[in-house]
Amino acid sequence: MNSIQKAEFLTPNNAVLAMIDHQTGLMSCVGDEHPTVLKNNILGLCNTVKAVGMPSVITASLPEGPNGPVMPEIVDVLKGQVIEREGQINAWHSDAFKNAIKATGRKKIIMAGIVTDVCLLFPALSAVAEGYDVYAVIDASGTWNKTVQEVTIHRLTQAGVKVTTWASVLAEIMHDWRSPYGEVLGQVLTHHTTPYGYVMNSHFSK
């Protein structure tokens, strides 16, 4: 991917969402964000993608083991089949996962994963090495503690991954409040960001 393509903003037509190992067992390991806040961020990201019809890929590592199944809310929103990996820690080493990404024909990947320093970091590095433009959504990912999060962010940025947040992804995709997706994405913001919910409530109470 050339520098011009990497400078392009996200649109509903040039990216794919990868949700990696948001499994109920792994969620219990998260210590860098409050569980309720993390769940809200994850669903905000998923509903953003759903609202604009962007393709998504969901994967899980040994879901019948201690990692547990993928959060059912993710599957309910994205309506996708979960790719159950055979044991690969790095999702990019799963042919089924990698081929599902390739099949979309899109070179920008919006990624989130539990835990950040493994399930998100490893496939992000691998995808960048193969020419993909990766956006790591840190607040829809989680790990053991803030120190681990900060170290992982450094490694991601050193490799050329774009570190971002779910609301920033939404705004980048929306581009303009007058876009065809302005209203529906505004509703996603209202439902999943308490501060902006107050803004919208104030507006509509006039």
CATH class (first level) name: Alpha Beta
Q: Could you give the count of β-strands?
A: 6
Taken from the alpha-carbon principal axes, the silhouette is globular
CATH superfamily membership: Isochorismatase-like
CATH architecture: 3-Layer(aba) Sandwich
List low-confidence stretches.
none
For the largest sheet, list the strands in their spatial order: 3-2-1-4-5-6
Helical percentage = 40-55%
Question: Could you tell me how far the N terminus lies from the C terminus, measured between alpha carbons in angstroms?
Answer: 48 Å
What structural class is derived from the secondary structure elements? alpha/beta
According to CATH, what is the topology?
A: Rossmann fold
How do the helices and strands follow one another from N- to C-terminus? HEHHEHEHEHEHEHHH
Task: Tell me the domain tally.
Answer: 1
| Residue fraction in strands | 5-15%
Question: How many helical stretches?
Answer: 10
Radius of gyration from CA coordinates: 16 Å
Largest sheet: 6 strands, parallel
User: Mean pLDDT, rounded to whole units?
Assistant: 94
